[in-house]
Structures are given as C-alpha cells and as structure tokens.
User: What shape does this take?
Amino acid sequence: MASAETAIRPTRAENFSEWYLEVIKAADLAESSTVRGCMVIKPWGYALWEHVQRVLDGMFKATGHVNAYFPLFIPLSLLEKEAAHVEGFAKECAVVTHHRLEARDGKLVPVGELEEPLVVRPTSETIIGESFARWVQSYRDLPLLINQWANVVRWEMRTRMFLRTAEFLWQEGHTAHATEQEAIDETMQMLGIYARFAEEWMALPVVQGEKTASERFPGAVRTYCIEAMMQDRKALQAGTSHFLGQNFARASGIQFQDEKGALTHAWTTSWGLSTRMIGAMIMTHGDDDGMVCPPRLAPQQVVIIPVIQKPEVREQVLAWCAELKRELEAQSYAGAPVRVHLDARDVQGAKKSWEWIKKGAPIRLEVGPKDIEKGAVFMGRRDRKPREKQSVPRGELVAGVGALLQEIQDALLRRARAVRAEHTRPIDTKDEFYAYFTPPATVRPNDPTPIHGGFALAHFSGDPAVEARIKEDLGVTVRCIPLEPGEPGTCPFTGQPSPKRVVWAKSY
Amino acid sequence: MASAETAIRPTRAENFSEWYLEVIKAADLAESSTVRGCMVIKPWGYALWEHVQRVLDGMFKATGHVNAYFPLFIPLSLLEKEAAHVEGFAKECAVVTHHRLEARDGKLVPVGELEEPLVVRPTSETIIGESFARWVQSYRDLPLLINQWANVVRWEMRTRMFLRTAEFLWQEGHTAHATEQEAIDETMQMLGIYARFAEEWMALPVVQGEKTASERFPGAVRTYCIEAMMQDRKALQAGTSHFLGQNFARASGIQFQDEKGALTHAWTTSWGLSTRMIGAMIMTHGDDDGMVCPPRLAPQQVVIIPVIQKPEVREQVLAWCAELKRELEAQSYAGAPVRVHLDARDVQGAKKSWEWIKKGAPIRLEVGPKDIEKGAVFMGRRDRKPREKQSVPRGELVAGVGALLQEIQDALLRRARAVRAEHTRPIDTKDEFYAYFTPPATVRPNDPTPIHGGFALAHFSGDPAVEARIKEDLGVTVRCIPLEPGEPGTCPFTGQPSPKRVVWAKSY
Ligand SMILES: [Zn+2]
Ligand SMILES: [Zn+2]
Assistant: This one.
C-alpha cells in the first residue's frame, strides 16, 4: 500500500455512506444476509456487543435491576390494548399466521392457520405489562425493576447495517413504581446511565434531552434520549428512556393496593439501547483506514504481531511473544484483565498489521528478532497514523499498558468532542438556519451530497407545524430539548417566545 | 407450618408432574404466558440461566470458539435445501407471512403479504450454512468455530415449562472443518464439555452416548447426547452434539480449496444446550420443600435473614448482617466472589426462611440479637432438612464458606448418583424388561401413575422395528448407546447378537 493511500475507499469525505459500509466489510463486523433487511453480526462485531452487554448489565444490576425473559410473540389482542402504541408499530410488524409447513406439489406451503395471529415483538411493553399485572398486587411488590436482553423485529423498508435492520438486538428495561415521582426518577436515572456509558465506555459525547411530541415513543408521556454527532455531522439517537405515566398500566391492568388500601394504577417506565451502538462507534471513531475500537470495549485491546522473515527464528519469536502476552494479560484495565491476541498466523507481518488497523485494535505490537535483541517492541496506536510507530522497552510497555489504553480512550473522546464542538452552532435567524442545512453544490451531478451542517442550537416555540415544515424542507428535526439549563429567547421561525434553545440536526 | 408437613404439595411421590409445576411456582422460576406454549422466565429462573451461560461461554471460548449472531428468520427456500432436515422440522414451524397490520372494522388484520414466507428459526444450520458458504474459500479459513446464544421456536403441541415450550433459549454451536476426523473430534469434544458442565456445575450425573437412527437430529450423520435420570426415573436429554458429515455443507455449498488446490465440501458439526437444563435441575435436585439450586449456579449462594423481634434492635442487627455480607462476598468460590443476599424486607423471619428454602438457596443464615451476642449465626443448609440448623461462629463460617458450598455441591452430585445407581438395572429377558417398565396398579383409578422403572441396560441388536414396537408398547426408547466400552451379548428381543448394552428408559 503506497503511503499516500488509505485502507478504505471511498474516504469519509468522498462518500460517507459508502465509507461506512466499506469499514464494516474491512473490519469484518457484519454482513447482509439473504433474509431481507436482516444482518449477520460477525465475531468481531458481536464481541463489541458482548462488551457493551457486560458493562451495561453490570450498571443495571448495580442499580437494583434484575434480568428476566418474556415471549417473542405478542397476540394481536394484547398489542391492541394501548392505542397510540399499536398505531406506532402497526406498519412494521412481522406477523406469524401459521404453525406448520406441508409439501404440496414439491413445494413447502404454510398450513395450520393460527386462530389469533402473533406479532414478533417490536418492543415488549404490552407482553411484559401482562406479567406485571399478575406480579403487582400491593405497594410492597413495588418497585419492579426488570431488564430483558432480546432480539426484536421492526419491518423497516430502508435498512442499513447496525443502524436500521428488520431484526436487531437490544436490552429493554421495564419498571413499575408506586408513585409518579419514583417513575420519573427511574427514567432520568437510566438516561444518566446511558449517558455515562456512552461517554466513559464508548468515548461518545452525548447530549441528554427530551424528545418533542412528534418524536415521542408511541404511548409514552415523555421520551428522553441521548444524541451523538457522527463524523458526517448527522445526529444519532444512542439510547432512549421513556416515562410512560399510567398509560400502559391502565392498558395492561397493572394495579396495586397502596398503604391505605386504595387500588391505584402503577407508574411505569421503559428504556432501551441496541446494536445500533456499534454503528455509532464506527461513525464516531472510524477513519479512512477503517474501524477504531474504543479501548474499553475493544474485543482485543492489544494485538501482538510476530514479524518473522526467516523460518529459523520463528520458534524463538513466537515464544517471546507468548510470554509477552502472558505478562500483558496479567495487567488489568477498566476492571478486567487486558485482552491480548497473539496473531501467530503464517501470514506476512505487514499484511497482518493492516488487518488489525482496519479492525481497529487499539494497540499493535510488532515483534521481530531485532526487537527481541533490544528487549523492546515496535508499537502502533490506533489513534495515531498507521506508520507512526515507536520502539518501547518491554518492561515499560507491560507496566504502562493500562494507562496507555486509557490515554487512547481519552484521545478518542477528546477528538469526538472537538468534532462536535466545531460543528455545533447557535443560530438565531431562519435564513441562517436554512443556509446551514442546505447542501453545498456538488461538482458532478452524480456525486454524493457533501458533508455539511451539524447541530444547530436554535430557539423553538414548540409548534409541531413548524417542526413538520422544517422536516419537509430540509430533512432536519429537533433531536432533543437538552436537559441542561438554558436562557429563554425568541423562536426564529415563529417569533414566539421560546424557553430555551433546542438541538436541530439531520439524523440517522 | 407443622413439622410433618412439607412446603410443596403434592409431594414427588404423590404426583411428580404436579409437584414439578408447584416447585416452579413456589421458587418463582417461571410462569405460563397468554401466548400459547410460551413461558415467562422470572428473575430467579433467569439468573440460573445467566450462570449457565457465563460458565458454558467460558468453556466454549477456552476451546477456541467465538460468538456471532444470525437472523431469526429463515426463508423457506433455504430451509428446503436439506431434505431430512426440513422434514424433521416442518411440522412445528412458526411461519411469518405478513409484515404489516391494518385496522379494518376496528380490528387489526395482517396485510403486506411476503413474497416468500419466513420460518422463525427452529435451529440455525441452514441460515448459518448460508454464511459459512461465503466465509469458507480455502483450507486456511478452517476450522470455523462459531457459537450463537439465541431464542428458537418449535411449535410443540404439548408443552411443559422449561422442558418443552414453543419458544426456548439455547446456545447452538456450528463448526466447519477440513477433514472428517477433525469434525468428529469437535463433536466429541463438545459432548465432553457438556458432560463436564453437567457433572461439575449442575451436579447432574450423565451418560454420554450415541443416539440410534430413530432419535437422530434431522440431517445428521450421528447424534451424540448426554442423558440424565430425573427423580421420577425418566431420562432427560441434557445436551446434544451432532456430526453432520458433509450433508449440510453440500446443501449450503460450503466448499474449500484444499492444500492441493482441489475443491471439496467441508465437514460440519452442531451442538446445543437449552433452558431445558433448568427443568433438569429442578427434577434432579428439588425435594418436597421446593427447589434446590446447585451452589455453583445458584443466583444467591448465601442468604442472610435478620430475625428481628423488637424494632429497637433492627438497626444493630441489620448493620451486623451488612458487615457479614461484605466479609462473605470477599471470599471466592468456583472462580467468582461468593454471591450473598441480605433479605432486609420487613417480613417475619420464619416466613422469609421458608421462602428461601423453596427457592433453593444453598445456605441460609439466620441472625438475631442472641446470635450477635455469641458472635455466631444460625445456619441451615439446603441439602439437609429445613429444621436441621446449627450455630456456627462467624469467623469460622466466613473462612469456610467456599468449602461449605462445595460440600453441598458434592452432596447433591452424590445423591443424584445414588438415585441413578439404585434405579439402573441390567436386564436380560424381554419379560423382565416389560415387567420393569409396566406401571404398578394405582389405588384409585384417577391417581397419577406411580413412579416406576428407571434405566434398563439391555442388549439391542439395532433393529428399528423392535425400537418402534417397544416405544408403542411401553413408551420406552433407547436413550443412547453409551460411549463406555461394553461386552457383546444377545438381544433379548430378537435373539440376534448385540455389540453392547444400551440405555432404555421413558423420557422427557
Ligand atoms: Zn434523541
Ligand atoms: Zn440422549
């Protein structure tokens, strides 16, 4: 590979959405399947998800939640119970109608029609509500703090790997409380956990905020989210937390006797985070050489690449590397032993090195006979240029590996924050707003839309018609009303008073 | 509760299958849902599964396997590819035929018919084979060692919680190899891992063996399994490992260039273990007072129960218990910190104690002001009678908790082995065989069938017609042909020579 070239073509600037698919391919994260809209999550991509699961699961348990598992199928009659909810999901439901296959004229056909069709869960409020109604009798049974790790299906027409697929993996928390305040506190607590996870573990700076009515979860009273900026300056919703009021409790009959003996409906919440997060990591940290894994979630944090030119040194080099691996694994980082991979395949060193760059391993260590003589390794960091490598004494490397991984983690977060800061702009007039989000002209008519815009912090009086108009004109929506305090002002679209600036952006 | 009574009614002897359901209820492990044949796995049951997952996943990774995730849906055309396979599963497939719901006359109806119906995966050989065909090109790509944690659906007509449900959770391993021998070695390695997991972690003694043709996995060349004896003397298949030969590789087109450049089909395996294991734990270790969790997989290994008669001592007792909890958690057992729960609910001590007996917590510690004065706790072990409790000095308990948990684990395995030994019998004549499996008369005509039979070790010449006849007459089948070496002999049913004794039993 010539030094001016990058490993991924097109580059981000050339065609961001093509670049995204090429990174997924080059890093071996996932692939499309023959099943319309469904993806196969390959081992390197799934391992990222396993670390997301491990860390989040720990955070949920530390705040008193327990896991359970509810049916994949939801009878139509259950789904129908909450009107806004069913309306929100009806258009994208996979429906099971038969329970048997029979060969007819050499072809399999569905037979055994079900009396009541079953929907493959798009989310589980209704099916879980049905259990909660049985589990909750008295105030003593509350709060009920449940989480589920599961697959869900939403029949999207336009799909995109990790970001929008017919089936995806996620966790969905569902809780019931005796008072409105407790349910609101839970909603905000979980939003805070998502924000902390995003920043501390994914190196993903996020804005915490509330959705406007038009972007609210179907059936919720209030929807909160964390929003992140991708490198193409679009927003990505990275986790949502819903205060459901008593809507679902009424629909499902979740009632309890309070301390005075009166029967009242519980207050519920739900909150979810999905495999979409892997898409967020790619589009936040990835560069023109491929994936960049945040060290805390990287499936392998250190990869040792033996560089063996002559077969006679092979054994000695491999033995030295194996010992180095053991020493590094004895170190710990972010509460777990350092994850080290020794790539002993009989493949050229430079080729292996590029593979690990594309996969985004945080630290690469090249080890040849000369390095061994010096008692050193040749180290490359994924947050720096591929050729920016340095010799590091073995002992220094081993002792400092945890600190080094955190240094890379910090660098990724700093970089992502800088990108976001650079492309976040307070805007006070409608003209400026429209100009900000209008794509610059392309050189050739078939070129992809150049990267433009970002987060506009503009006042908004809250009129849904204005939102709808801007969405139609520019494809821009209110991503959230930030939780952070802000100053009141004037809405540039209506001239009406606005309590604070909101975040406007194009989004995934 | 009077001392002669037990917590679960009916008892095992009175009605084993009713007892089973009552234990699930009393231990709060699971419940039926309104979705036909589907269950809700409640937190205590799901936590057992989480520990099964954690330990097995570690064993899989230690043998070089990685996790991935494949689509929930299988297009009919893919499922059809392996003839025996589709025939085996066609009768129990949930089929998705529509992708939208529409309100008509105030009722939701499925619309948007799919061009090709999709089957909800009953197992994933065909959908994974489709990916493997892309991933495998050269002998260098082999072996491919993949595992998936997933839900699967088999539309069973008669369901039973944990043992046979329309949807269940499992892991399914799928591997591809360059040679027949490597694939066979993998098949046997995974069978061995299941056997080791069952014995060391679940305290479940198992027979490893091969299935006869009639019980083989649809499409497999050979199916191996581990079989355990439940307390009603029926067999339960607790994990299967299949050598698939080149059948699925041919069906899916998994081909590779070998070292000489010739194109050949890979050899594949698959192996699975499911939430059925929780049913096995209940029926192996449970007693007339409820669930008995094997300590290594118990969600909580030690439960501290403050016994507070007077409110004024509450704070002091709780503080002492909290400190005890911290000390116990600093101990480790089976490679992890001891899992300790402090049950601080404002509920009578005896009531709490019975709840934890029914849930099967291995060690209960009752702590009142007098125990604190003595610097001791009042300890109950779940492998002993509920009232067989003893005072143990605090320091001794803390230092010895790991050893004590292993003592209980060993006791459970020993007990299960003794039950199996007592009800395993070599049988050499057809009459004795029929007598062994014929239910004794019931006292009243409506009484449940008394527990009888067990494992019959009888010779078998291998004639499928004999198997079919015995299944029809007695509901007894060959559970497996044990791997352990045996002596040749004569089949009592045909008079033909038999290579070795096989295990016959009624089964779940
Ligand atoms: Zn948002
Ligand atoms: Zn078996």
